[in-house]
Amino acid sequence: MASSTVPASIQRLLESSDVISDFDHTLSLAIGEDGTVLPVTHQVLGDALVLPDLNQKSTQDKYAAYSKESSGSDKLAMLEAWWRKAHDGVVARGLTRKEFEERASLIDIRLRDCSADLLRSLSDAGVPTLVFSAGLSDVISFVLCQEMGGIPDGVHIIGNKMEFDDQGKLIAFKTPLLHPFNKNASVIDKSSPLHSSLSTRAHLIVLGDSMGDLTMEKGLGKERDDTLRIGFLNGQSEKLIQFMQGYDIVIGTNYSMEIPRQIVQEIVAFYVFVIPYTAKDM
Asked: What are phi and psi of 128, to 5 degrees?
C-alpha cells in the first residue's frame, strides 16, 4: 500500500493537528541583511517619539534587574508592574490609531521568507494556527495584512491588544497582560471555540525562538501524543546545546521558514494524494 512508505509519526500528525507559533523573531525575521537585530512588536511604541521614558537608561536598567535578580512570584509581580506602567504611559501619551498605523508601516518588522506560505498552507489544510506573542497583537495583525493581504482563515492571534475609542484614540490595553512568563494557553478562555479546537487535537507543531516558547501549549488540559517542536536559534550559537535539548529541530540560520513549510507541505501532500488513493485501493 502507498501509505507504507510514509513514517508513522507523519501519519499520526495527519489525523488531528494544530500549530502554535511565536511571532517576534520566529515568524518575523530576526536579523537584517546588514547584521543588525530587527525590531520586535513592542518597539513600535518604545521609542522617544511615542514613549520617552521607555528609552531612559534608568528604566531599562530597572527592567533588566527585575529579569535577572528577582525570582518566583516577586519577579512576575515586578515585571507585570513594569509593563502595566509602560502601557499606561502609552495611553497617557494619547496615541491614535492613525499614528500607530503610520509607525507600524515605518518600522522594519517583516515576515521571514516562507512564513506567509506556511500560514497559507496551514489555512488551506484547515489546520488551526495560533500565533502567540508577548508583544502587540495589533502589530502582528498589521504586518500580516500588509504582507499577505489579510489574516488567513484559521489563524488566530493572541497578544497584548490595544483598545481605541470611536475617535481612534488609544484608551486602554485589554487584559490579560501577556509577558514571556505567562505566554501559554492558560490565558485562553476555556469556554471559547479556540480553546476547544486546540485542546481536542492530539498532535501539535510548536515554533519558537526561546526556551520559554516550549511551554506555549501549557493549559490545554492534556498531554499530546505527538508534539514536534521547531526552534529558531537566530545565530545565538551559545544557546545551541540548550535548544537541542528542548527542540526536536533547531534551525540555526536566520532567514527562512522553509523547513517548517516543507514539513507542512509533505503532511498536506500525503493527506491529499495518498489517503484518497489508499482508501480507494483497499
From this structure: -60, 135
Which residues share a beta bridge with 22?
A: 132
As a whole number of angstroms, the distance between CA 85 and CA 87 comes to 5
* Phi, psi angles (nearest 5°) of residue 94: 85, 30
- pLDDT digit string, tens, across residues 210-223: 999 999 998 887 66
Alpha-carbon torsion, ordered 190, 193, 194, 199, to 10 deg: 60
3-state helix, strand, coil in the chain (%, to 5): 50, 20, 30
Residues 6 or more apart in contact with residue 273 via CB below 8 angstroms: none
Which residue do the cell numbers 506602567 mark?
85
73-118 pLDDT tens trace: 676 777 788 788 888 888 888 889 999 999 999 999 999 999 999 9
- Rank 7-21, 67-81, 129-143, 215-229 by mean pLDDT and report only the highest: 129-143
